[in-house]
Specification:
This protein is an alpha+beta fold. The protein has 5 helices and 4 strands; from the N terminus they run ββαααααββ. The strands form 2 sheets. The chain has a two-stranded antiparallel sheet with strand order 1-2. Strands 3-4 form a two-stranded antiparallel sheet. Strand 3 and strand 4 form a beta hairpin. The longest helix has 14 residues. The protein is flat and about 55 Å long. The two termini are 23 Å apart. 5% of the residues are buried.
């Protein structure tokens, strides 16, 4: 695409916190890795959701627990996930995706790329961490 630009960093205020600190956001829309990730999404999306532990959204979760009762001695807890994407073990995630691709009998219907090339693309997307803030580039 002729409109390539570096990922852009901006901030959104955490309005629920004292002094409203900024939450840094890096938008990759329009960057080379954005287009690469879009292609990977088409290839990998059939591999997602094939686990009994997969929940699509909060509505599905609400339906799933609708009939659940909490006893007097039970405690219901909620966990706040902090830095979810910055803590994904990349090496392990790539290894898992590689094994899923190796067992995927329909991969050839979605792409002509060999799984080795797909893994290289995934590694490139996950290891590209540059962004622009104002006129300055950071990596």
């Amino acid at each position: 695409p002729s409109q390539n630009r570096p990922p852009q960093m901006y901030g959104l205020p955490k309005i629920h916190k004292p002094d409203r600190p900024m939450r840094p956001i890096v938008s990759s829309i329009g960057s080379p890795t954005y287009y690469l990730a879009k292609e990977l999404t088409q290839i990998l999306s059939p591999l997602v959701g094939n686990s009994p532990h997969h929940i699509t959204n909060s509505s599905q979760f609400a339906q799933l627990i609708a009939g659940t009762s909490v006893g007097e001695s039970d405690k219901m807890v909620s966990f706040d996930v902090k830095s979810l994407f910055t803590r994904v073990p990349v090496k392990e995630a790539v290894s898992r995706i590689s094994s899923l691709l190796d067992r995927d009998t329909t991969l050839g219907e979605r792409t002509n790329l060999p799984s080795r090339v797909i893994i290289e693309m995934i590694e490139k997307v996950l290891s590209t961490t540059y962004f622009q803030l104002g006129t300055d580039l950071y990596e």
